[in-house]
């Protein structure tokens, strides 16, 4: 993430910070290797304060592509995947550079490396674009990780909000998604209480704890 105290939130697309980005990436790879994590979120970073987004967009994209190609080469030696996550600039962070799945997909196409994927947080995707079913189907070949939270409160999937998660989970299954779904939300209570929705979801599908649909059939 760079220097959080200095207001940074990633460095991959920030011009002039390439050396710091590479140093941070090497540290991230070290940690990921140690804990056996095969995926690393490569954070794009914020548009520099005092600059116009449109005025620096081209330079930031060039920097991002350069750093992502470096990342892909490094991660290929570790059999790891780099992930790009669009973060909404309407609620969460108005200065973040990478905001939509469309923007991320265009960057990935320009970089052209198979070990770089899309980290699709449905919270951010819903806020920026909606149309989740279409977006999941359209970008599915690029997706390397899914994250969830209810909109707009960013709480548990069964909390009041805009998203129908049982439908979304079934859609992911029908698309053949086999990866993890990260719970990127703020629990209303403690962590264990915040996972109660999952047991209820399993029970609604006629499943036992940790059982899969295929096994149940």
UniProtKB/TrEMBL annotation:
One Pfam family, short name: AP_endonuc_2
Keywords: Isomerase
Keyword Nucleus applies: no
GO molecular function, one term: hydroxypyruvate isomerase activity
Catalytic activity reported: 3-hydroxypyruvate = 2-hydroxy-3-oxopropanoate
Xylose isomerase-like TIM barrel domain residues: 10-200
Top EC class of this enzyme: isomerase
EC number: 5.3.1.22
Entry superkingdom: Eukaryota
GO BP, sorted A to Z: glyoxylate metabolic process
Keyword Zinc found: no
Family: Belongs to the hyi family.
Function: Catalyzes the reversible isomerization between hydroxypyruvate and 2-hydroxy-3-oxopropanoate (also termed tartronate semialdehyde).
Protein name listed in UniProt: Putative hydroxypyruvate isomerase
Organism of origin: Nicator chloris
